Amino acid sequence: MDFTLLISFFEQKTTMEFLRLGMVYTHLIACCVAIGMVLTSDFAMVKELLRGEKSHLQDARHMQSLKRTVSGALQVLWFTGISIIWIDMTEHGLSYLLNPKLQAKVAIVMLLTFNGMLLHSLVLPSLEKAGSLLDLTFNRRMFALFAGALSGVSWFYAAMLGVGRPLAWKYSLAELLAVYPVLIVGGFMMMTLLTQWARAREQHGNRATYPRNAALAGW
């Protein structure tokens, strides 16, 4: 009896509309939280590279907070996203899954999830240990920069697809994802150039400091 009432409850159109609204709202909040954390961390890292500082990346509590918050937000996004797809499928049927915009967003979120696992298991522990992006080995630094560029671009691209209702059924999957790899490569190249410039400035400063310290020691 209770099971029949539960089924009839979910079969009501008004109920499903409000349920979908709640899921979309929660989905949006989780996305905003994750993007805010990622953006704040990226801005802090860029500022440190420009100023030659090494304090922010040494904050282990910040790193742990970043990992917990982004991981939690990603879990909420998966739950609410699957719930929204299920609700829409009950109304439009399996043909809803053929929407190229939906396919593009799911593909990016899957890649974002895998990349997030690599960031949390490899990149962030390396940064905590080294204390600075500039102190990583070349291979680890390049991997960290690429993973960071992929993460930043993916969050914003997925958010754009999420709110881009006019894109639905209008463009193919290839057209929707055409700019995506270009933005990732562009972000990676920009961060690589910035990092190389910061390393060159740091090495130049060390060379300038060494003769002065040697002269003082001789005096």
The biggest sheet, with number of strands, parallel, antiparallel or mixed sense and barrel status, is: none
Shape: elongated
Q: What is the assembly state of the chains in this entry?
A: single chain
Strand percentage = under 5%
In DSSP terms (H or I, runs of 4 or more residues), the helix count works out at 7
**Quick check: average pLDDT?**
80
Number of domains: 1
Draw up the topology in text.
Elements: H1 2-11, H2 13-51, H3 60-92, H4 100-130, H5 138-163, H6 173-176, H7 180-218
Overview of the structural elements:
This protein has helices spanning 2-11, 13-51, 60-92, 100-130, 138-163, 173-176, 180-218. By secondary structure, it is an all-alpha fold. The chain has one domain (2-210).
Brief overview:
With 219 residues, the chain is mostly helical.
Task: For the structure shown, list the relevant keywords.
219 residues; mainly alpha; 7 helices
